[in-house]
Amino acid sequence: MTGDDGRLRPAASLESVAVVGTGLIGTSVALALTALGVPVFLSDADPEQARVAASLGAGHLGPPPRPCEVAVLAVPPAHIAVAYEQAKRSRLALTFTDVASVKSNVLLEVQSHLAQDVEDFVGGHPMAGRERSGPRAARADLFLGRPWVLTPSAATSPRTLAAVRGLVRACGAVPVEMPARAHDQAVALVSHAPQVLASLMAARLAGADEPVLRLSGQGVRDVTRLAASDPQLWRDILTTNADAVAAVLREVRADLDTVLDALDPAGGSSDRALVALLEQGNRGRRRIPGKHGSAPALYAFLPVVVTDRPRELARLLADAADSGVNVEDVRIEHAQGQPLGLVELAVLPDAAPQLSQELVRRGWSVQEPDPLQPD
Amino acid sequence: MTGDDGRLRPAASLESVAVVGTGLIGTSVALALTALGVPVFLSDADPEQARVAASLGAGHLGPPPRPCEVAVLAVPPAHIAVAYEQAKRSRLALTFTDVASVKSNVLLEVQSHLAQDVEDFVGGHPMAGRERSGPRAARADLFLGRPWVLTPSAATSPRTLAAVRGLVRACGAVPVEMPARAHDQAVALVSHAPQVLASLMAARLAGADEPVLRLSGQGVRDVTRLAASDPQLWRDILTTNADAVAAVLREVRADLDTVLDALDPAGGSSDRALVALLEQGNRGRRRIPGKHGSAPALYAFLPVVVTDRPRELARLLADAADSGVNVEDVRIEHAQGQPLGLVELAVLPDAAPQLSQELVRRGWSVQEPDPLQPD
Which of A67, A155, A246, A302 could form a Cys-Cys staple with B263, CB 3.0–4.6 A? Predict the structure, then answer.
C-alpha cells in the first residue's frame, strides 16, 4: 500500500538519469528514481533550487561521471531547445525528454534549434499537474497511476523511446504514445476546452446576487471547479495550444448557437435540435473512461443522510466496507442551513441493494439510488 | 442522526395538508408531514398512484372532512392551473402551492385561468430533484437541508405565505423567498446554463478517439457530469425557461467569442482579454457558497495515495476521524492502469498539517496540499 510504492513497479533497469530543472516535476522524477536506487544527477539554472532538491534526497549535484541513460529536461517550455542543445553538447546523457504540457511547438523548436534530425529526443507530458510549486512540493509518488504521454517523431530512435518509456514506468506512470500534434489536440479536448468552459460559466456568477448564488447545487459546483485555476498559467497553456483549443471551441460555439436558436421562439430550429444536442452530451459523457482506464461503469449512487459531525463519514464508510461492497466513489452534497448532508456512495449497480439493506440495518437513512436528475 | 429527523425540525403547527399528485415530490412531502403527526389527505389523477402512496404510509385517501390549511399541487406544470381551480372549488384547502421548477409561467397561468387575484396561492420550488420517479422513490427526508424557493406575487396574502413557509420548514427544507421572475433567472444561472455548458462540452467527446479519452482527468469529468441528465426532461425545463436561459447563454457566447479572438493570431484582442476572463472565472467560482450557505471555506485538499481495495477508504476516513480533524469533503482521483488511486480529503487549511502528520504517522502516503492546478 503506502510507503512501498516501489514494490508495485517493475524493477528499474535504468543505469542513471540526469534531471535538468529541479522544480516540482523534475524533483519528483528524481525522488521517484532515487527511491528505486537509480543514480540521479541534478542541475538547475538556479543552483540554490538544485541544492534544495539534493537536500531533499532527490540525487547528486553536478555533472555525472559519464553520460546518463536519459536526461529529463524539466525546464519551462521556452528554454527546452537551448537546454537540449547544451545537454547534448556536454554529453550529459544519451537520450533526452521534456515535460511540457503542449508538445508540437517544443518539437519544432528543438528541431529548428539543432537544424538536424533529433533521434535522441522524445517529447513527454506527465499528466500530474502542480507545475509551479518548486522542489519542496515534489513527491516520489506524484506520477503513480497517471498517464504520461510520449510523443515520438519520425526521427526518434527505438532506443530513445525504450529508454524514456522505462523512465516513465519507473516513476509509476502509464506511458501513452501518440504524435505531438495528436497529443495537443487530445489535451485541447479533454483538458484545455473544459478549462475554458468552466471559466465561461464561473464568469457569469461573478456579478450575481447573493440570494441567487445560495441556490447553487452540486451541478454548478462541478461545472465550475476548474475555474479556480491560475489565470497566467492557463493563458500560457491556451495560447501555446491556440489552434487545437480554438478548433474545439468553434464547434462548441456552433452547438451553442443551435441551443440559442432552439430557445428563441422566432428561431429557425425546433426543440429537436436541442434534444439532439443533449443526447449527444449523454453519449460523450458515457465515453469518458472510468477507473483504471476501463469502460465507465454505470455506478449506482446511493444517497445516505448523515449529520455533519466528525466521524459520521468514517463510520458510514466503515459500515459500507463491513457490508462487503466496494465503494467506488464518494460525493458529499452540501446541505444549506442544517447540520445535515447527503453522502452519495457510488457502487456497482448490482451491489446497491445489498449495501442499501446493510446500511439501513445499521440505522442509516438510505434514499433510493437514482440516475442523475436535475434539481 | 438518522431516523430522528423530526427532532431536528421545529414542531409542526400545521393542522392538516392536502397533497394533490402523489409522485415523488408529493409523496415525499406527505411522508415528511405524516412523520410529524400532521394529517395528510392524498389524491392523484391516477387513483392507483394515490393508493400506492397511502400504502407507503404517506397519508389518508380521499377528501378531508374540512378544508386543509395547505394544499400542495404536486402535478406536472401544465396541469397546475386546472388543479388549483378544482381544489379551490371543492374547498380542499385554504391556501395552495405548487412544486414546478420554473415559476413565472405557472403564476401567469393560474392568474389567467382564474381571471382574478390569487391571494391564497404562492408558487414553490423544492430544489431536491428526482421529479420523475413516482411514489415508491419518495422519502420523508428528501428535502432535508435543501433550499425550497417560494415566489409570492403582489396578491399573495401574508397568511398564505406563512402557512406554506410552515409546510416547507416542516419538511426540513430552508424557505427562500423571491419573485417568480427572479427565481427563474436564478435557476437559469445556477442550474440551467450549467446544464447546457456540461452538455456542450460532453457533446465534443462523443466522436473522440479512444486514446484521446484515456487522457481524461478529474477536470473534464467534473465539467461534464451533468451531461448525463435526461434529455426530454431538460428540453422541457430549458424551453419553459427559455428567455432567462438564453440571456445567460448569450453572455457566455460573447465571452467565448472573446476567447476565440484571443486565440486567433489574426484576432484583434490581446492575451489580456483572455486573462481577464479567466480572472473573472476565479471571482465567480469563489462566490459559490460552501457548506450550509456560509461563505465558501477555502479548504485544503490533502492528497493521500490508497490502493483500490475494499476497506482502504473506510480505514483512511477512520484514521482521519481519529486524528480529530473534520473531513469536509472527499474526492477520489481515478488512477489509470494501476491498482492505486489518490483520495483528496478536504479540510480547513489550519487543520491540514495536523491531519497530514497524523496520517503519515499511521503509514499513509500523504502528498502536499495544493491549490487547484492544471494537469
Answer: A246
